Amino acid sequence: MNSDAAAGFDGQGTHNTEVERGILFVISSPSGGGKGTLIRRVLSLDPRLGYSVSWTTRSPRVGEVEGVHYRFVSPDEFASARERGEFLEWAAVHDNYYGTSRTTVTRELSAGRDVILEIDVQGAASIRHANLEAVSVFILPPSFEILRARLTARSSETPDTLSLRLRNSRAEVEHYREFDYVLLNDNVERSAAQLAAIVSAERARRPRQERLARRVLATFPAPTTEAL
Fold this sequence. Notes:
By secondary structure, this protein is an alpha/beta fold. The chain has one domain: Rossmann fold, CATH 3.40.50.300. The protein has helices spanning 9-12, 35-45, 75-83, 102-110, 121-129, 144-153, 159-173, 188-203, 210-217; strands spanning 24-28, 49-51, 55-56, 71-72, 87-93, 96-101, 114-118, 135-140, 181-184. The strands form 2 sheets. It has a 5-stranded parallel beta sheet with strand order 2-7-1-8-9, sandwiched between helices. It has a 4-stranded mixed beta sheet with strand order 4-3-6-5. The longest helix is centred in the C-terminal third of the chain and has 16 residues, at 188-203.
């Protein structure tokens, strides 16, 4: 696990005096757990949510679009960006590199926009170890057999890559204990609704509504002291 997350992030992401800082949502699962599908459902329903497109050195799968699903780069391009400090977090996963753009996330959060990071458990650990404020959600597959069926059905992996992802899956699932929320992805519609509910609940937390509550309170008459 590697992280550049601690360097300079807070300094670049200071609170705007007019706009409340956005919430960072970290969504993880083992490969094939279905986090991408759930995230796309929630994004389509909530215009206040942004999505950070990760960088990766792996090849695009069928149907994946550059700049939409990932930013696909060469190992040399990735290494250069890492050396320039462009990643909030980065990790080597299943023999490929993945990273999150520091600039994109900072800009969105500072503008008051909530942002979803779709990252592996290593990336989530990097965010956590850097003490960055985030809400983390782990997506559980219903079982190993269903996970294997999902990975096999998408026909996007070589036999060696498929075997590697399956071998790593148990160790990834064991990280569920480190997350704020755990969702079972056994029904896409229900699981997406649960994920959307988590987003709504986090927005309603009292500390995040403090400014709103004070603004409403200011519309009430000041308390008066009546003589007994």
